[in-house]
Design goal:
alpha/beta; 7-stranded parallel beta sheet; 7 strands; about 45% helix; globular
Length: about 260
């Protein structure tokens, strides 16, 4: 088991990506502490993990509230004695952002994903790092999107937000790797099981004339295997990256776009 005896916190665990990563971490033996802004979805994931024989505790934590994150991580380390993995899967609603041309988008709505996504990642990473450096080991992780590296229309400030998170991954690693910590990201693209891709499709549906199935096919056509990634595939890579088997990876974002972006 890749994560046996590891203590992992997943922020945003009530979402599709956070929930999938939590289940994958549990399957590999991690002791889980799951947080999210709303208690209900996080508790549902924790109950699923426990029912499958894993260890998980849920809590309602606003990842944009520094004090709340600090208190939460303090409670985790007091209970578990350590913190080995911090995974940021915090997302924000996109319905009022996607589908609006930049020339028509209000500045506040453009800046919202940039401010929120980077703040959540910075706070969860910084406050986790403070606990990890005491032991000289730990892994800090986040998830971005294809938008970080290629121009995509009608996504507002979402692309700059993802690019900023990848830049922060490099900066955190440059400072923390000498102290024994690793910082890595994952960059998937268009997983149909997530809410984000549906929100991206809906404002384009009328203009494009495409059905939901045709929209997925158009995105899949840009990948090498002509299909889109599943949540289980993403989560499996996340579990590997969080493990000691990936000790040589830090300061980078792993390309999981299946060839939509060639590195």
């Amino acid at each position: 088991m890749l994560l046996k005896d590891k203590v992992a916190v997943v922020h945003g665990a009530g979402g599709a990506i956070g929930g999938a990563v939590a289940r994958a971490f549990a399957a590999e033996g991690a002791e889980l502490f799951l947080s999210g802004r709303r208690a209900g979805p996080v508790e549902a994931v924790a109950e699923e993990v426990v029912a499958a024989g894993g260890s998980a505790r849920a809590a309602a934590v606003d990842a944009l509230d520094e004090g709340a994150v600090d208190r939460y991580l303090r409670s985790v380390t007091e209970r578990a004695g350590r913190l080995d993995v911090s995974f940021d899967a915090v997302g924000i609603p996109n319905a009022e952002i996607l589908g609006v041309p930049l020339t028509d988008l209000e500045a506040e709505r453009f800046a919202l994903p940039i401010a929120a996504c980077t703040r959540a990642y910075f706070l969860t990473a910084r406050l986790a790092a403070r606990r990890m450096v005491e032991r000289g080991s730990g892994v800090i992780m986040t998830v971005t999107a294809l938008h970080s590296r290629t121009g995509i229309p009608l996504v507002g400030g979402y692309g700059p937000a993802m690019a900023a998170k990848e830049a922060l991954t490099r900066a955190l690693s440059a400072e923390l790797a000498p102290l024994g910590l690793r910082v890595v990201g994952l960059r998937p693209q268009a997983m149909p099981e997530t809410r984000t891709i549906r929100e991206a499709f809906e404002p384009r549906a009328a203009a494009s004339g495409l059905t939901w199935e045709q929209w997925q096919e158009s995105l899949a056509a840009r990948t090498h295997p002509r299909r889109l990634m599943s949540l289980d595939e993403l989560a499996g890579v996340a579990a590997f990256l969080a493990s000691d088997r990936a000790s040589g990876l830090t300061g980078t974002t792993v390309n999981l776009t299946m060839g939509s972006l060639d590195d």
